Each structure stands twice: as C-alpha cells, then as structure tokens.
Amino acid sequence: MPKSPRRLGGAEAVVIVVVITVTAALVAVVGMPLPLALQLLAGAGLTAVLVVGLLTGATTRWLRTALSAFLAPAA
C-alpha cells in the first residue's frame, strides 16, 4: 500500500468531522432518508474533488484518476 504523502492537518480533520456530524443530524433530527443523505454527501465529495483539482492546477490525469475512483461502483 502506498504511503500517504502527508497527514491530515487540524483544519482538514475538523471539516471531515463537521461534514459527518451534519449528515448524521440530517438523518436523525430532520428525518432525511439515509440514501438521500448519502447522495448529498457523495455530491459534496465530488464537488470537493473537482474544486480542489481545479484550484491546485492538478493535471488531467490526476483528476481522471480521482473521479474514476470516486465514481467506481462499490465492491
């Protein structure tokens, strides 16, 4: 398994925790169905991949690899 280039920083970890907490609140408090909440979470992840890739000037190959991994069917 390839080694990660760097560990998550504090701000990145906080964003991940907040996203998971908001998704759980949508399901538990608001009553949003779990499949819909997961679709919302997947859409946010896909948007994040595209924005980070475009803002950092990632190569087309990197974006294609990230998107294909993100959109691949679950095993």
List keywords for this structure.
mainly alpha, 3 helices, 0% strand, globular
Shape: globular
Q: How is the main sheet built? A: none
Percent range for β-strand residues: under 5%
Euclidean distance between termini CA atoms: 18 Å
Helix count, DSSP H or I runs of 4 or more residues: 3
What is the gyration radius calculated from CA atoms? Answer: 15 Å
Average pLDDT score: 79
Taking pLDDT < 50 over at least 5 consecutive residues as the criterion, the unreliable ranges are none
β-strand number? 0
Q: What portion of residues is helical? A: over 70%
Q: What is the H-and-E element order?
A: HHH
- Broad structural category: mainly alpha
In short:
The chain is 73% helix and 0% strand.
Helix/strand layout:
Blueprint: H1 10-30, H2 34-55, H3 60-71
